[in-house]
Specification:
Pfam families: F-box
Structural class: mainly beta
Distance between the termini: 62 Å
Number of strands: 25
CATH topology of the largest domain: Neuraminidase
Number of domains: 2
Strand order of the largest sheet: 4-3-1-25
Number of helices: 6
Shape: globular
Protein name: F-box domain-containing protein
Oligomer: single chain
Strand content: 35-45%
Largest sheet: 4 strands, antiparallel
CATH superfamily of the largest domain: Kelch-type beta propeller
CATH architecture of the largest domain: 6 Propeller
Protein backbone atom coordinates (compact mmCIF):
# COMPACT_ATOMS: atom_id res chain seq x y z
CA UNK A 1 0.00 0.00 0.00
CA UNK A 2 1.46 3.29 -1.08
CA UNK A 3 1.80 6.11 1.38
CA UNK A 4 0.24 9.38 0.46
CA UNK A 5 2.64 12.27 0.33
CA UNK A 6 1.62 15.29 2.28
CA UNK A 7 2.77 18.61 0.83
CA UNK A 8 3.42 21.28 3.40
CA UNK A 9 3.37 24.82 2.12
CA UNK A 10 5.89 27.08 3.81
CA UNK A 11 5.46 30.79 3.41
CA UNK A 12 8.72 32.67 3.69
CA UNK A 13 8.26 36.43 4.01
CA UNK A 14 9.70 38.32 1.05
CA UNK A 15 11.76 40.59 3.25
CA UNK A 16 13.49 37.55 4.76
CA UNK A 17 14.24 36.13 1.30
CA UNK A 18 15.67 39.42 0.09
CA UNK A 19 17.66 40.38 3.16
CA UNK A 20 18.85 36.99 4.40
CA UNK A 21 19.33 35.13 1.12
CA UNK A 22 19.77 37.50 -1.81
CA UNK A 23 22.34 39.70 -0.08
CA UNK A 24 24.61 36.65 0.21
CA UNK A 25 24.57 35.89 -3.52
CA UNK A 26 27.11 37.12 -6.11
CA UNK A 27 26.25 40.28 -8.04
CA UNK A 28 25.39 38.50 -11.29
CA UNK A 29 22.94 36.21 -9.50
CA UNK A 30 21.24 39.08 -7.66
CA UNK A 31 20.75 41.00 -10.91
CA UNK A 32 18.76 38.10 -12.35
CA UNK A 33 16.34 38.14 -9.41
CA UNK A 34 15.20 41.66 -10.28
CA UNK A 35 12.86 40.05 -12.81
CA UNK A 36 10.95 38.10 -10.11
CA UNK A 37 8.68 40.98 -9.12
CA UNK A 38 8.48 44.74 -8.84
CA UNK A 39 8.90 44.44 -5.08
CA UNK A 40 12.11 42.48 -5.43
CA UNK A 41 13.44 44.84 -8.09
CA UNK A 42 12.69 47.89 -5.93
CA UNK A 43 14.40 46.31 -2.92
CA UNK A 44 17.47 45.14 -4.87
CA UNK A 45 17.90 48.61 -6.39
CA UNK A 46 17.57 50.36 -3.02
CA UNK A 47 20.75 51.85 -1.58
CA UNK A 48 20.08 50.15 1.77
CA UNK A 49 20.15 46.66 0.21
CA UNK A 50 23.14 47.52 -1.99
CA UNK A 51 25.20 48.63 1.00
CA UNK A 52 24.28 45.50 3.00
CA UNK A 53 25.21 43.33 0.01
CA UNK A 54 28.55 45.13 -0.37
CA UNK A 55 29.44 44.61 3.32
CA UNK A 56 28.77 40.88 2.98
CA UNK A 57 30.79 40.77 -0.25
CA UNK A 58 33.78 42.43 1.40
CA UNK A 59 33.74 40.00 4.34
CA UNK A 60 33.09 36.73 2.51
CA UNK A 61 34.62 36.93 -0.98
CA UNK A 62 38.02 37.66 -2.44
CA UNK A 63 38.41 41.00 -4.22
CA UNK A 64 38.26 41.18 -8.00
CA UNK A 65 40.86 42.94 -10.17
CA UNK A 66 40.55 45.61 -12.87
CA UNK A 67 43.32 45.70 -15.47
CA UNK A 68 43.44 48.93 -17.47
CA UNK A 69 45.01 49.10 -20.92
CA UNK A 70 47.62 51.83 -21.22
CA UNK A 71 46.53 53.47 -24.46
CA UNK A 72 43.28 54.40 -26.19
CA UNK A 73 42.43 52.08 -29.05
CA UNK A 74 42.81 53.33 -32.62
CA UNK A 75 39.07 54.01 -32.55
CA UNK A 76 39.62 56.43 -29.66
CA UNK A 77 38.12 54.16 -27.02
CA UNK A 78 39.42 52.99 -23.64
CA UNK A 79 38.93 49.43 -22.46
CA UNK A 80 39.08 47.44 -19.23
CA UNK A 81 39.55 43.80 -18.33
CA UNK A 82 38.23 42.39 -15.06
CA UNK A 83 39.62 39.39 -13.28
CA UNK A 84 37.69 37.35 -10.72
CA UNK A 85 39.58 35.23 -8.19
CA UNK A 86 37.95 31.87 -7.44
CA UNK A 87 39.06 29.20 -5.03
CA UNK A 88 40.62 27.13 -7.81
CA UNK A 89 40.40 29.27 -10.93
CA UNK A 90 40.77 32.75 -12.36
CA UNK A 91 38.35 34.18 -14.94
CA UNK A 92 38.99 37.12 -17.28
CA UNK A 93 36.25 39.32 -18.74
CA UNK A 94 36.82 42.04 -21.37
CA UNK A 95 34.63 45.12 -21.01
CA UNK A 96 32.86 47.28 -23.50
CA UNK A 97 34.90 50.22 -24.71
CA UNK A 98 34.43 53.73 -23.38
CA UNK A 99 34.73 56.45 -26.08
CA UNK A 100 36.83 59.56 -25.55
CA UNK A 101 36.03 63.09 -26.69
CA UNK A 102 37.96 63.04 -29.92
CA UNK A 103 39.99 65.50 -31.90
CA UNK A 104 40.33 63.59 -35.22
CA UNK A 105 43.62 65.25 -36.13
CA UNK A 106 45.25 64.04 -32.91
CA UNK A 107 43.80 60.54 -32.72
CA UNK A 108 46.47 58.02 -31.81
CA UNK A 109 48.90 60.51 -30.28
CA UNK A 110 49.91 59.60 -26.71
CA UNK A 111 46.43 59.21 -25.24
CA UNK A 112 47.27 57.44 -22.01
CA UNK A 113 44.56 56.05 -19.74
CA UNK A 114 44.41 55.85 -15.95
CA UNK A 115 42.03 54.37 -13.40
CA UNK A 116 41.42 55.42 -9.81
CA UNK A 117 41.41 53.08 -6.88
CA UNK A 118 38.00 51.67 -6.09
CA UNK A 119 35.43 53.02 -3.67
CA UNK A 120 32.36 50.84 -2.92
CA UNK A 121 33.00 48.79 -6.04
CA UNK A 122 33.08 51.87 -8.30
CA UNK A 123 36.11 53.16 -10.21
CA UNK A 124 36.82 56.20 -12.38
CA UNK A 125 38.47 55.75 -15.78
CA UNK A 126 40.11 58.89 -17.19
CA UNK A 127 42.52 59.98 -19.89
CA UNK A 128 45.96 61.37 -19.18
CA UNK A 129 47.20 63.95 -21.72
CA UNK A 130 50.73 63.25 -20.58
CA UNK A 131 52.79 64.75 -23.36
CA UNK A 132 50.46 67.75 -23.78
CA UNK A 133 50.01 66.81 -27.45
CA UNK A 134 46.46 65.49 -27.30
CA UNK A 135 43.07 67.01 -26.67
CA UNK A 136 41.32 63.63 -26.52
CA UNK A 137 39.73 63.26 -23.08
CA UNK A 138 37.52 60.77 -21.33
CA UNK A 139 36.20 60.37 -17.80
CA UNK A 140 33.78 57.68 -16.67
CA UNK A 141 32.53 56.41 -13.33
CA UNK A 142 32.14 52.66 -13.78
CA UNK A 143 30.80 49.69 -11.83
CA UNK A 144 32.84 46.82 -13.30
CA UNK A 145 30.54 44.16 -11.79
CA UNK A 146 27.24 45.43 -13.25
CA UNK A 147 28.70 47.21 -16.33
CA UNK A 148 26.91 50.39 -15.26
CA UNK A 149 28.77 53.58 -16.20
CA UNK A 150 28.27 57.31 -16.52
CA UNK A 151 30.38 59.81 -18.43
CA UNK A 152 31.52 62.90 -16.54
CA UNK A 153 32.61 66.33 -17.75
CA UNK A 154 36.34 66.89 -18.04
CA UNK A 155 38.16 68.54 -15.17
CA UNK A 156 39.85 71.89 -15.55
CA UNK A 157 43.20 70.11 -15.32
CA UNK A 158 42.33 67.99 -18.37
CA UNK A 159 41.19 71.08 -20.26
CA UNK A 160 44.26 73.21 -19.49
CA UNK A 161 47.05 70.61 -19.60
CA UNK A 162 47.27 70.41 -23.44
CA UNK A 163 47.79 74.20 -23.60
CA UNK A 164 51.10 74.00 -21.74
CA UNK A 165 54.47 74.14 -23.46
CA UNK A 166 55.04 70.49 -24.56
CA UNK A 167 58.76 70.84 -23.86
CA UNK A 168 58.07 71.34 -20.15
CA UNK A 169 57.62 67.90 -18.61
CA UNK A 170 56.19 67.13 -15.19
CA UNK A 171 54.95 64.05 -13.37
CA UNK A 172 51.20 63.61 -13.82
CA UNK A 173 48.94 64.08 -10.78
CA UNK A 174 46.62 61.14 -10.13
CA UNK A 175 42.91 61.38 -9.40
CA UNK A 176 41.53 60.46 -5.97
CA UNK A 177 38.18 58.73 -5.37
CA UNK A 178 36.48 58.44 -1.98
CA UNK A 179 33.26 58.79 0.01
CA UNK A 180 31.97 61.24 2.56
CA UNK A 181 31.16 58.90 5.46
CA UNK A 182 28.63 61.34 6.91
CA UNK A 183 26.43 61.95 3.86
CA UNK A 184 27.41 58.89 1.79
CA UNK A 185 28.27 61.10 -1.20
CA UNK A 186 31.10 59.83 -3.40
CA UNK A 187 33.66 62.43 -4.48
CA UNK A 188 36.42 62.68 -7.07
CA UNK A 189 39.33 64.92 -6.06
CA UNK A 190 42.13 66.17 -8.29
CA UNK A 191 44.89 67.75 -6.21
CA UNK A 192 47.93 69.10 -8.06
CA UNK A 193 50.69 71.69 -7.95
CA UNK A 194 49.36 75.01 -9.24
CA UNK A 195 52.55 75.93 -11.08
CA UNK A 196 52.28 72.94 -13.43
CA UNK A 197 49.41 74.81 -15.12
CA UNK A 198 50.80 78.29 -14.46
CA UNK A 199 47.99 79.01 -12.00
CA UNK A 200 48.48 81.83 -9.52
CA UNK A 201 47.59 81.72 -5.84
CA UNK A 202 47.89 78.61 -3.68
CA UNK A 203 50.78 76.16 -3.91
CA UNK A 204 48.31 73.42 -4.74
CA UNK A 205 44.97 73.50 -6.56
CA UNK A 206 42.06 71.27 -5.60
CA UNK A 207 39.19 70.26 -7.91
CA UNK A 208 36.22 68.37 -6.41
CA UNK A 209 33.41 66.56 -8.20
CA UNK A 210 30.54 65.44 -5.93
CA UNK A 211 28.58 62.45 -7.25
CA UNK A 212 25.45 63.59 -5.44
CA UNK A 213 22.39 61.64 -6.60
CA UNK A 214 20.09 64.30 -5.13
CA UNK A 215 21.59 67.03 -7.27
CA UNK A 216 22.72 65.26 -10.42
CA UNK A 217 21.29 67.89 -12.76
CA UNK A 218 24.21 70.21 -12.00
CA UNK A 219 27.24 67.96 -11.97
CA UNK A 220 30.32 70.15 -12.29
CA UNK A 221 33.83 70.34 -10.94
CA UNK A 222 34.26 72.82 -8.08
CA UNK A 223 37.40 74.85 -7.41
CA UNK A 224 36.40 76.44 -4.08
CA UNK A 225 38.32 74.15 -1.71
CA UNK A 226 41.19 75.99 -0.04
CA UNK A 227 44.38 73.91 0.26
CA UNK A 228 45.91 75.08 3.54
CA UNK A 229 49.33 73.61 2.89
CA UNK A 230 52.46 75.45 1.68
CA UNK A 231 54.19 72.28 0.41
CA UNK A 232 53.75 70.78 -3.08
CA UNK A 233 52.04 67.47 -3.76
CA UNK A 234 54.18 64.58 -4.96
CA UNK A 235 52.72 63.93 -8.41
CA UNK A 236 52.59 60.42 -9.86
CA UNK A 237 51.53 58.83 -6.55
CA UNK A 238 48.14 57.20 -6.09
CA UNK A 239 46.17 58.83 -3.27
CA UNK A 240 44.61 56.48 -0.71
CA UNK A 241 41.08 56.59 0.71
CA UNK A 242 40.11 55.33 4.16
CA UNK A 243 37.55 56.34 6.82
CA UNK A 244 36.11 59.25 4.86
CA UNK A 245 39.44 60.93 3.99
CA UNK A 246 41.80 61.00 1.00
CA UNK A 247 45.57 61.11 1.52
CA UNK A 248 48.52 62.35 -0.59
CA UNK A 249 52.27 62.63 -0.13
CA UNK A 250 53.72 66.16 0.07
CA UNK A 251 57.32 67.35 -0.20
CA UNK A 252 58.09 69.34 2.94
CA UNK A 253 61.68 70.01 1.91
CA UNK A 254 63.73 67.92 4.33
CA UNK A 255 61.11 65.20 4.68
CA UNK A 256 57.98 63.70 3.19
CA UNK A 257 54.63 64.18 4.93
CA UNK A 258 51.04 63.06 4.34
CA UNK A 259 48.31 65.57 3.48
CA UNK A 260 44.77 64.42 4.34
CA UNK A 261 41.46 65.80 3.05
CA UNK A 262 38.37 65.12 5.15
CA UNK A 263 35.71 64.60 2.51
CA UNK A 264 32.80 65.86 4.62
CA UNK A 265 34.26 69.15 5.89
CA UNK A 266 36.62 69.45 2.87
CA UNK A 267 39.42 70.63 5.13
CA UNK A 268 43.06 69.55 5.10
CA UNK A 269 45.42 68.38 7.83
CA UNK A 270 49.07 67.27 7.75
CA UNK A 271 50.52 64.06 9.19
CA UNK A 272 54.18 64.93 9.71
CA UNK A 273 55.66 62.04 11.69
CA UNK A 274 55.44 59.19 9.20
CA UNK A 275 57.80 56.18 8.94
CA UNK A 276 58.84 56.93 5.33
CA UNK A 277 59.62 60.61 5.96
CA UNK A 278 63.28 60.32 4.89
CA UNK A 279 62.86 57.75 2.10
CA UNK A 280 63.59 58.66 -1.55
CA UNK A 281 60.43 59.86 -3.29
CA UNK A 282 60.64 57.18 -5.95
CA UNK A 283 60.61 54.40 -3.37
CA UNK A 284 57.44 55.22 -1.44
CA UNK A 285 53.76 54.54 -2.06
CA UNK A 286 50.55 54.48 -0.08
CA UNK A 287 47.50 52.24 -0.16
CA UNK A 288 44.65 50.85 1.95
CA UNK A 289 44.94 47.36 3.40
CA UNK A 290 42.55 45.81 5.92
CA UNK A 291 40.70 49.14 6.10
CA UNK A 292 43.82 50.98 7.27
CA UNK A 293 46.03 53.62 5.65
CA UNK A 294 49.34 51.99 4.73
CA UNK A 295 52.69 53.42 3.64
CA UNK A 296 55.38 51.35 1.96
CA UNK A 297 59.08 51.79 1.22
CA UNK A 298 61.05 49.71 -1.26
CA UNK A 299 64.70 49.17 -0.35
CA UNK A 300 65.76 47.04 -3.31
CA UNK A 301 65.64 43.63 -1.65
CA UNK A 302 62.66 44.22 0.61
CA UNK A 303 59.47 46.24 0.79
CA UNK A 304 58.38 47.37 4.25
CA UNK A 305 54.75 48.31 4.90
CA UNK A 306 53.46 50.27 7.88
CA UNK A 307 49.77 50.63 8.77
CA UNK A 308 48.14 53.42 10.78
CA UNK A 309 46.08 52.30 13.79
CA UNK A 310 43.48 54.84 14.83
CA UNK A 311 42.96 53.32 18.27
CA UNK A 312 46.41 54.45 19.45
CA UNK A 313 47.14 56.91 16.58
CA UNK A 314 50.41 55.16 15.78
CA UNK A 315 52.17 53.52 12.84
CA UNK A 316 52.92 49.79 13.10
CA UNK A 317 55.24 47.75 10.89
CA UNK A 318 52.86 45.23 9.31
CA UNK A 319 54.69 43.47 6.47
CA UNK A 320 58.23 43.00 5.19
CA UNK A 321 58.12 41.51 1.69
CA UNK A 322 61.13 39.71 0.25
CA UNK A 323 61.17 41.23 -3.24
CA UNK A 324 63.98 39.05 -4.58
CA UNK A 325 62.01 35.85 -4.00
CA UNK A 326 58.68 37.36 -5.07
CA UNK A 327 59.33 39.34 -8.22
CA UNK A 328 60.07 37.87 -11.61
CA UNK A 329 63.27 39.84 -12.23
CA UNK A 330 66.41 39.69 -10.13
CA UNK A 331 66.79 43.21 -8.76
CA UNK A 332 70.34 44.45 -9.32
CA UNK A 333 69.54 48.16 -9.24
CA UNK A 334 67.03 50.36 -7.46
CA UNK A 335 63.56 48.86 -7.77
CA UNK A 336 62.15 50.51 -10.87
CA UNK A 337 58.39 50.40 -10.32
CA UNK A 338 57.32 50.95 -6.75
CA UNK A 339 53.87 49.46 -6.19
CA UNK A 340 52.15 48.50 -2.94
CA UNK A 341 50.07 45.29 -2.63
CA UNK A 342 46.69 45.46 -4.35
CA UNK A 343 44.81 43.77 -1.53
CA UNK A 344 44.95 41.52 1.51
CA UNK A 345 43.17 38.23 0.76
CA UNK A 346 40.89 36.28 3.08
CA UNK A 347 43.67 33.82 3.92
CA UNK A 348 45.95 36.77 4.83
CA UNK A 349 48.08 36.44 1.71
CA UNK A 350 48.87 39.62 -0.21
CA UNK A 351 48.00 40.23 -3.84
CA UNK A 352 50.89 41.98 -5.60
CA UNK A 353 51.05 43.64 -9.02
CA UNK A 354 54.59 42.86 -10.18
CA UNK A 355 55.89 45.15 -12.90
CA UNK A 356 59.59 44.71 -12.14
CA UNK A 357 60.18 42.97 -15.47
CA UNK A 358 60.29 45.40 -18.41
CA UNK A 359 58.60 42.91 -20.75
CA UNK A 360 55.90 41.22 -18.68
CA UNK A 361 53.56 42.03 -15.81
CA UNK A 362 52.53 39.46 -13.21
CA UNK A 363 49.90 39.17 -10.51
CA UNK A 364 51.36 37.33 -7.54
CA UNK A 365 49.93 35.87 -4.32
CA UNK A 366 52.46 36.34 -1.51
CA UNK A 367 52.39 34.56 1.85
CA UNK A 368 54.08 36.86 4.39
CA UNK A 369 54.38 34.05 6.96
CA UNK A 370 56.22 31.51 4.82
CA UNK A 371 57.63 34.19 2.47
CA UNK A 372 56.44 32.08 -0.46
CA UNK A 373 54.61 33.19 -3.58
CA UNK A 374 52.60 31.91 -6.53
CA UNK A 375 52.14 33.62 -9.89
CA UNK A 376 48.67 33.36 -11.43
CA UNK A 377 48.57 35.89 -14.27
CA UNK A 378 51.14 36.97 -16.82
CA UNK A 379 50.59 39.79 -19.31
CA UNK A 380 52.65 41.94 -21.64
CA UNK A 381 53.67 45.09 -19.76
CA UNK A 382 53.08 47.59 -22.55
CA UNK A 383 49.38 46.62 -22.57
CA UNK A 384 48.74 47.55 -18.97
CA UNK A 385 48.82 50.89 -17.17
CA UNK A 386 48.10 49.26 -13.85
CA UNK A 387 45.77 47.11 -11.80
CA UNK A 388 43.44 47.86 -8.90
CA UNK A 389 41.36 45.65 -6.63
CA UNK A 390 37.65 46.11 -5.94
CA UNK A 391 34.76 44.36 -4.22
CA UNK A 392 31.93 43.52 -6.58
CA UNK A 393 28.89 45.63 -5.75
CA UNK A 394 25.45 46.65 -6.99
CA UNK A 395 25.98 50.35 -6.34
CA UNK A 396 25.39 52.85 -9.12
CA UNK A 397 24.34 56.49 -9.39
CA UNK A 398 21.06 57.75 -10.94
Amino acid sequence: MKRKRTLVQVNIPEDVVVEEILEKLPVKSVLRFRAVSKVWRREIESRRFQERHLKHEQKSREPSIVLVKRRLYDSGEAGLTTLSLGQTSVSLDNHIHYPAVLNPEQLGRFEFVRITRSCDGLVCLYSENYFMLSENTCMYVINPATRWYRQLPEARFQALAPDRDPMIRFSYPLLGFGKDDITGIHKLVWLYNSDCLDLDGQTNTCEVFSLDDTNNTNWNWRHDVIVSCPHPILHGKYPAHVHGSLHWFIDAGTQVQVLSLHLHTETFMVMDKIPVASAPHGCITMCTLNNRLCLSEDKGDTQTIWSFHQDNMAWHKTYVIDLRSTLSACIEEEYRFTTPPLASLLDHRLLIFDSSDSHTTNLVRYNPTSKSFSQFLNATSYCLAGAISYSQSLISLP
